[in-house]
Hints:
By secondary structure, the chain is mainly alpha-helical. It has two domains: 2-41; 45-182, no CATH class. Helix content is 48%, strand content 10%. The protein has six helices and five strands. A hairpin with a 5-residue loop joins strand 1 (46-50) and strand 2 (56-61). Helix 4 packs across helix 5 (149-158). It is elongated. The protein starts with a helix and ends with a helix.
Amino acid sequence: MKKNLKALKQVFLCYIIMTVLCGIIYPGIVTVIAQTVFPIQANGSIITITLRDGTCKDYGSALIAQEFTKPEYLIGRPMGTTNLSPVSKEQEKLVKERIDWWHSFDPDNDAEIPMDLVTASGSGVDPNITPAAAEYQVSRIARERSLSEYAIREIISKYTTGRFLGFWGEPAVNVLKVNLSLDGLL
């Protein structure tokens, strides 16, 4: 009985120590570091715009996709993940449905649809598309907004980031920032 009580005390002490370390100290340290080194990202990279009347409005996160479906906007990747094999029949069917949607959405565009417009990202909430996917949509946006294609490309260029450290990853266009700029908010 005495051994059981001693073992129970040790288990309880270990539980308290691990709770304090992993539940209070570690999250506290990570929060302080994140708020100090990466405050914008740690707070969700929220894009807040001050309106003409002086009020502020949050429009979304620069790091999490927003869904746009109107023709006057740049449209991002499909939302949600599927965990389907790239060569599965289900994935093939989804891609075909998305290709058909693009053809009905923008029937004047006979260019090849970039792959990132018909496949979801690994996270399902990728806020960026490739420059090719943005270029695919330029003529439609220009037509819908009665702007020149040059003006649309200038806005897209402004919100296109290059490769990380000049060699890692691919260039990316932030869909939310382009659309806010198209609306004259950025």
